[in-house]
Specification:
The structure holds 2 protein chains of 2 kinds.
Chain A: H1 3-9, E1 15-18, E2 21-24, H2 25-43
Antiparallel strand pairs in A: 1-2
Chain B: H1 9-20, H2 23-26, E1 31-32, H3 42-63, H4 65-68, H5 72-101, H6 110-132, H7 137-152, H8 164-193, E2 208-209
Antiparallel strand pairs in B: 1-2
Classes of the chains: A alpha+beta, B mainly alpha.
Chain lengths: 51, 210
Amino acid sequence: MTGWLASFLNHPATYLKWGWFQISISNLIVILIMLALFAAAILIKFPKGRE
Amino acid sequence: MSTPTHEMWTARLRSSWQRNLPIEKLLPDDQPAYVASWIYVFGVATIAALGVIIASGIVLAFQGPAWYHTSDIGNFTNSIHFWSVQMFFAFMVIHLWGKFWMAAWRGNRVRTWITGAVAFVVSIATAFTGYLVQTNFDSQWISFEAKDGFNSVGVGAWFTVTNLGQMLLLHVAFLPLILGVLTLVHVLMVRRRGVVPPIDAVPANLEVRK
């Protein structure tokens, strides 16, 4: 594996900290993707099935 | 003198099954109009991910750590197992969010909700024991960190995270069996009661989509 993904995955996680709260960037990305999927599932129209 | 058929437990079970879960409910070919939404896709996406987890897990179990740590195809299968677990949890949590905000326990569906919640907890235990049986330095680190936590709440002698044999059997036999049974019961309950309608559904929405 090469490139930015390799340098991102092959190093210890980077953490964001706000006081008592801390989260790794990896976990934050996963949670943001899940929230985006949830929003998309509600907002995007389902294709029409059999009529 | 033989017992009358209608009093046999097999006959009672059969008639109860036919009354509560006839084959038309078990294998429907039509769904109400409101099911035509992407938010209803995440339950079956979770089951699909579980299928990939089980299939890749069976391959890992047969081939063993010496294969999945050293060969390219072994590493690939190991990654398939890991990433399908990530997708399983992501889909399951989105399914949970959707069902929570539509109050999916309505309409006598509380046992469907509870089996789903328990399946979620069992999934966490299964994933945790999976991290412990990787047979690498990562699993060694996780188990030695976790043992202090379990010892501090007094269960360390019974649930020994540094005992590879115990964790492996829990991960590949006991917990998947419990999770499989819970998933099956959960799905059968969904089939019995039907997919929960939206909170503001009007009778026209409840008609079966042809």
